[in-house]
Amino acid sequence: MNVDEYSIENEAESLYLKGVELEYSNNYYDAMKYYRKALRLVPDIDKKIFKKSQFKESTHNNNDQENFSGETNIYLNCDVNDYYDGDEALIDRISRILDKFAKICVPNKPQKGRHISDLPMEVIMYIWRWVVSDELDLRSLDQCALVCRGFYLCARDSYIWKSACERIWKNEEVTLFNYDSWRDMFINRLRIATNGCYISETKYHRQGEISFQDQNYRPYHLVVYFRYLRFFADGNVLMINTPETPSIVVTLLKSKNPKSAAVFRGSYTVINNFVYVIVKVKRKHVNSLKTENKTKTVNLIYHMTFEIKRYKKWKTKLLWKEYKWLCTDEARYEENFEIQKNSFPSLLFSRVKSYNSESEKPLP
Questions:
Q1: Which of 83, 151, 87 is closest to 121 using CA atoms?
Q2: Which residues does residue 204 pair with via DSSP β-bridges, in sequence order?
Q3: CA-based nearest residue to 152, from 77, 91, 240, 223
Q4: For a tag on the chain, would you pick the N or C end, based on fewer CB atoms within 10 A?
């Protein structure tokens, strides 16, 4: 290519790029003028510009790939022969590795945008607090720890686990006692689980009406109903008694402000291994003793006491210790129920995945 042809091609390229600039600014009429001038000078100028941009991009990516591969290999292979023994030694080993870098991790593949490792450590730890959320979803935090060594180290941050312990046992002075770490305390100490429901199934037989044709026939009906308790980390609790199966009912207990009138709201307090629950219910009562039936609202207060016990491996259950209800009507009265194993079976915990699918607030 001689000097004249080179200058003509440069002029056509500048005209074509000017047309592109005008087109991006929605000035299509003037853009077409520059496109026509460029094509008159070099008919295939658009193809040449495209090939030139592809060549520059491939060269840039190759350089980035070489730098990226070198950084990744150094990050992954450093101190691979270090000996470690136990969880604490593993954390110390990872800390030594990350101290050599300004980042907690490196991307697995080169990318054009920003990577999470470019964020300051304060921002990354704030993201982890959103992962844990206001409802103490520490299971998701442990799942994040499986991504890489840097995430593993962040997920073992003692301040996060201490905040979770203080939120669970907020009515006590929280200390480590005989536990190795705050995470060890949160996992192994008996506590109320907030990422699911406590469910019990009650069965009993009820005698039916005697047939007027056959006095010897006495029908019996098997009655089955479930009791559900959903605890929130802020001290709220939801309760419902229904014959519906758990697959139908658990969705009603997702929000702290349920729409269903069958769901009762209350509060709870945890002291040592005992849970004290108070549920207030408003019910309409019809007074049939008067000549004119009048409906009035009666306030009932249910008091329930449970003991937290371990069953299977990491799951917990609630054992009934006390159950009574109080009427705050004009004729104030209360009734205590005798706790029997058949009438008041233990409430077993069942995790519900949808309860932690979204985070409304970060861990305070």
A1: 151
A2: 223
A3: 91
A4: N
For residues 56 and 61, give the distance between their C-alpha atoms in angstroms, rounded to a whole number: 9
Reply yes or no on whether the pLDDT at 120 is more than 50.
Answer: yes
What is the per-residue DSSP string for 66-97? HHHHHHHHHHHHTTTT----HHHHHHHHHHHH
Structure confidence at residue 68 (pLDDT) = 47
| Packed helices 28-41 and 45-77: angle between N→C axes, nearest 10 degrees | 100
Q: Provide the domain count of the chain.
A: 3
Q: Does residue 108 belong to any structural domain of this protein?
A: yes
Q: What is the pLDDT of residues 166-221, one digit of tens each?
A: 988 887 888 887 888 899 999 888 999 998 999 999 888 777 766 656 666 667 77
Q: What is the pLDDT of residue 275?
A: 94
Same domain, 252 and 317: yes
Contact assessment for residue 319 and residue 346, using Cβ atoms and an 8 Å cutoff: yes
Tell me how far apart the alpha carbons of residues 107 and 115 are, in angstroms, rounded to a whole number: 7
How is 213-280 classified by DSSP, letter by letter? Answer: S-TT---EEEEEEEEEEEE-TTSEEEEEEESS-HHHHGGGGSSSS-S-TT-EEEEEEEETTEEEEEEE
- The residue range of the domain holding 14 is 3-77
C-alpha 83/C-alpha 75 separation (Å) is: 17
- Yes or no: say if 139 and 356 are a contact pair by the CB < 8 Å rule: yes
Q: Which two tokens stand for residue 58?
A: 């491939």
For residues 190 and 271, what is the distance between their CA atoms, to the nearest angstrom? 11
Read off the DSSP letter of residue 119. S
| The predicted structure's pLDDT at residue 288 | 47
User: pTM of this prediction?
Assistant: 0.69
The DSSP secondary-structure symbol of 346 reads: P
**For the domain that residue 159 is a member of, what is the CATH number?**
1.20.1280
Final residue belonging to a domain, choices 16, 49, 77: 77
Q: Is the pLDDT of residue 257 over 50?
A: yes
Q: Which of the listed residues 53, 77, 101 is the one where a domain comes to its end? A: 77
